Give the backbone structure.
Amino acid sequence: MGKTSARYAPEVRERAVRMVGDHAADHASQWAAIQSIAPKIGCTAETLRRWVREAEKAAVPGAEARAEEATRVKALEREVRELRQANEILRKASAYFAQAELDRPLKR
């Protein structure tokens, strides 16, 4: 996770996130709840939104592992695409040289 501000104690952060979850039903959206609660905590709405997102990520078991796996899959897909392109180039080059060999006059 990112750097935690020393200005807000972890208990305050946890309480603020819990308040957003508890009062989300009282508002039209989660963002409206965040905007309502942030001034009461003494932070900006964006700061509280970030705290909520971090808490949501932490609450999902294995989320970090899935993110790493998704990154790995993306890299492997890129590698497969590059290898297929290289194979296509080699296939065309092979066909070109085979045709050139057939067109060459025979030595006697």
Q: What stands out?
A: The chain has two domains: 1-59, 62-108. Residues 90 and 96 are 10 Å apart (CA to CA).
